[in-house]
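Inputs:
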Amino acid sequence: MFRVALSLIAGLIFGLGLVIGGMANPVKVQNFLDVTGTFDPSLAFVMGGAVAVTFIGYRFIFRERSPLFEEQFHLPTAKELDTSLLTGPALFGIGWGLSGFCPGPAITSLPLMAKGTLIFVPAMLAGVGLARFVTQKRAPSRLETTGGTA
Amino acid sequence: MIGLSAVLLMLFNGRIAGISGILARMFPPYAGADAANALAFVVGLMAAPLCYWAVTGDPVPQIVSSDAVLMAIAGLLVGFGTVYGSGCTSGHGVCGIARLSRRSLVATAVFMVMGFVTVFVMRHLIGG
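Outputs:
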């Protein structure tokens, strides 16, 4: 129960970061992606800041042998580069450009009830379920390395 | 704050703060309390714009395309692509790069480039 509450708080902080950083505004994201037009570099700083904080925080955490409330870290174990690592992100990038949404901001935007969001999120969940089904069928043992962690 | 959240999730639960993975864990097959934690994180995300609204008194500024076909196709691509490719902006782009994962560097480069290309085609070739 305690851990569920912590997950909720982590989600809230994450969502506030998206909202305040402007990631939850699809047009702003598309402006960021429009390098030859209305390029808006501010999101690069949002992303860069998130990477920097995570990078430093992880250095400290990984000195410990386990997380506080679990027996072990759940880290992706795959190291090899395979085709799903090209096709997946390629499809995602197209959808990201078309809509200006990646998964976090889309979910965060649900309570704002924009028509586009209300269409996007169910379609996204259908895509998640489909990919989960396909990857499980192909190699059930990859649960931890594909859908499970990243 | 995104970074702080990612750090907290690893410190407490030993998990990558990857939204696509969190969404995937809400689908079967389930493992332990994963689904409950994933659902709690998602509820936290959705509480964020409401908290922002309550504190600042302003709704979150947002312009979303209302083109139903476009958004449905984009949603499918994003949902399928992120789970099939093992991660999205947060899992690969933030946590993966912070771990200096070679897979995440490749994945992030691919989705960034495809994002640039898609917006370029949409706005400058097709016109918009």
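Remarks. Chain B touches chain A through 105 residues (CB under 8 Å). Residues 2 and 120 of chain B are 28 Å apart (CA to CA).
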